[in-house]
Fold this sequence. Notes:
The protein is mainly beta. 7% of the residues lie in helices and 54% in strands. The longest helix is centred in the N-terminal third of the chain and has 12 residues, at 33-44.
Amino acid sequence: xxxxxxxxxxxxxxxxxxxxxxxxxxxxxxxxxxxxxxxxxxxxxxxxxxxxxxxxxxxxxxxxxxxxxxxxxxxxxxxxxxxxxxxxxxxxxxxxxxxxxxxxxxxxxxxxxxxxxxxxxxxxxxxxxxxxxxxxxxxxxxxxxxxxxxxxxxxxxxxxxxxxxxxxxxxxxxxxxxxxxxxxxxxxxxxxxxxxxxxxxxxxxxxxxxxxxxxxxxxxxx
Length: 222
């Protein structure tokens, strides 16, 4: 899927974070996944990916997500702390429709600069869009985190297939759970880098065990 989006965030006294995100784009050949993947494989000398002739048909994709997080922090001194962040949220759209709940535990330096990873069921967990190192009152910081989230999935276009036309699909499982662990590092208000490893329960029937994958993200403001 190729998409663009808008994210509205409210941070209430570093205790409650509410976000509303709207994404729109396309699935299918218009997303240019075939060209991007095989061009990269050619650059690194890897074999070309097969099966692109069986991808979803072109379709406009839209999803709106709402999430609310609560921070329960415990100061340890010298800028260090640990915190528990429960979260609830839902999404509505023809790409994803689901409801979810979960939480993470974090430990590190300058935790109030961020809220940990976004709990979005895409291919990986990215750093939350909220980032304000002035809240942490430190030039640099880091954290380690681990957590879990469970969701009830009504729509997942990548498993259900196209909405208004026939396409390949699988028998989706409605309850899905993730275990995740990761770390992030930031410097001033310029640079942030992070990695998250995920163990995801089977998303469709006859799947051979859970999925394991990782996501790496980096951001730089200028």
